[in-house]
Write a sequence for this structure.
């Protein structure tokens, strides 16, 4: 009888392992790796540091600002796909961290930004995120000590129903490409009720959902008429002007 139960248990464990393995394989097949251009740019930039919690892009010392950008990747998008954007932010004077998330899913690392900020004793932080990463950034902004958050940058993103930032005292920027066919427009409009009244809403002409990173076309997205670099330059310009 005991051997029978052991065989049943072993069979269940094998089935469970197959289910988990199949799930991981499926997620991997749906993932968006950073393209070669982004990886080459990160490799060429000798100052970039591959740390435990994030990829760190030190600010240009000649333009260094007080603010630090802490960035969440989009769902199933390799953090390094935002390397070009991070390099531009660093060149503009912002210390920038691209958070590493388990399985490239920010929802599995929902406290990653908070942990990094506390571990490194950062202040004047601009929390930022793309798509699902923006949801996590918005959520984290409510959990940090008053005065820590210098701003919230949402790229093709909006706060969840559980995150009400209507009374937030820090600036918020919401950027969306006018060719973005991924973002749920009704949910995006509804999310505006949970953001401060003085939130800056910017539509990037010719931009799409994937253009905030460098990972190639995204299934279901619109066709961009500008390059990702141009789309990302507009992000950097907005932050630079805000903190001049």
């Amino acid at each position: 009888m005991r051997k029978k139960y052991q065989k049943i248990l072993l069979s269940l464990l094998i089935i469970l392992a197959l289910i988990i393995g199949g799930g991981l394989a499926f997620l991997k097949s749906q993932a968006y790796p950073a393209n070669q251009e982004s990886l080459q740019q990160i490799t060429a930039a000798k100052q970039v540091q591959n740390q435990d919690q994030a990829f760190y892009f030190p600010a240009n010392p000649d333009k260094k600002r007080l603010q630090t950008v802490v960035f969440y990747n989009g769902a199933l998008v390799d953090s390094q796909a935002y390397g070009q954007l991070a390099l531009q932010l660093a060149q503009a004077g912002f210390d920038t961290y691209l958070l590493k998330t388990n399985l490239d899913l920010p929802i599995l690392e929902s406290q990653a930004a908070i942990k990094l900020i506390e571990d490194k004793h950062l202040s004047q932080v601009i929390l930022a995120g793309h798509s699902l990463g923006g949801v996590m950034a918005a959520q984290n902004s409510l959990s940090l000590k008053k005065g820590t958050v210098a701003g919230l940058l949402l790229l093709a993103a909006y706060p969840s129903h559980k995150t009400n930032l209507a009374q937030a005292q820090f600036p918020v920027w919401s950027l969306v490409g006018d060719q973005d066919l991924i973002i749920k427009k009704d949910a995006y409009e509804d999310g505006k009720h949970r953001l401060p009244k003085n939130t800056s809403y910017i539509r990037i002409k010719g931009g799409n959902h994937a253009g905030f990173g460098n990972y190639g076309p995204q299934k279901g997205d619109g066709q961009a008429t500008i390059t990702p670099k141009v789309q990302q330059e507009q992000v950097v310009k907005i932050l630079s002007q805000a903190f001049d």
About this structure: The longest strand covers residues 149-155. The chain has two domains: 1-30, 33-242. The radius of gyration is 20 Å. Residues 65 and 93 are 5 Å apart (CA to CA).
